[in-house]
Design brief:
Number of strands: 10
Distance between the termini: 77 Å
Strand content: 25-35%
Mean pLDDT: 81
Number of helices: 3
Order of helices and strands: HEEEEEEEEHHEE
Shape: elongated
Largest sheet: 4 strands, antiparallel
Structural class: alpha+beta
Low-confidence stretches: none
């Protein structure tokens, strides 16, 4: 005999319909509880991952701000798409009541690229164009890196710096585990500072 309602009593029929409604309600609540458990599990995994990888969810295109010779500064990555060069901005805040000229004649700058382990893969002197930053305003000094200068870099540097087989989705996940850093070392008469940012691999194919 198949399952279902077989009584002809109206009262029993109402009870039967009521029991079906209760079963559906319990099923919905079980679904809600399961979804909440899944959400909580994902949230816990996110917190664990963030604690183990504190830099993964920070803005990788901007360094921490530092005060050099009284001026707040930070390094930022240019977002302009260019297959031949990568730009870097050293933003400087002039909070005085006088215009200031940057860089100072005694400044020395060095640009570096490092692997995840801190191995220096590339370095070059930075030559900034002189720029006047008005009082109570912010300006920047610009450095352009020619990607052609990196083509002769040996392994393991090359694999970390360049994404030869780039795809959109693979790059998103790869950025969580693969990281190289760009630095600018700034030396002045009074201080020395390193501005560092984490970068995704450059999308360029290796020359044969």
């Amino acid at each position: 005999m198949s399952k279902g309602y077989h009584s002809k009593s109206p009262e029993e029929f109402r009870e039967y319909l009521k029991s079906i409604g209760n079963q559906k309600s319990k099923f919905r609540w079980r679904q809600i509880v399961i979804l909440l458990d899944i959400f909580l599990l994902i949230f816990v995994i996110y917190l664990v991952f963030r604690s183990l990888n504190p830099g993964s969810f920070e803005d990788p295109t901007q360094s921490a701000k530092q005060i050099i010779d009284g001026n707040p500064m930070y390094l930022a990555l240019s977002r302009e798409v260019d297959d031949t060069n990568q730009g870097y901005f050293l933003f400087i805040e002039n909070n005085t009541n006088q215009d200031q000229i940057f860089p100072d004649k005694n400044w020395e700058g060095e640009f570096r690229i490092l692997t995840k382990e801190g191995v220096v893969c590339f370095s070059e002197k930075v030559k900034w164009d002189s720029k006047t930053i008005p009082k109570f305003s912010k300006g920047f000094l610009y450095h352009s890196l020619s990607l052609k200068n990196l083509q002769s870099i040996a392994e393991p540097c090359y694999s970390e710096i360049f994404d030869v087989d780039y795809t959109f989705f693979r790059s998103k996940f790869r950025n969580l585990t693969l990281s190289f850093s760009a630095q600018i070392l700034l030396v002045t008469e009074k201080s020395q500072a390193i501005f560092q940012i984490k970068q995704k691999p450059y999308r360029i194919k290796k020359e044969k």
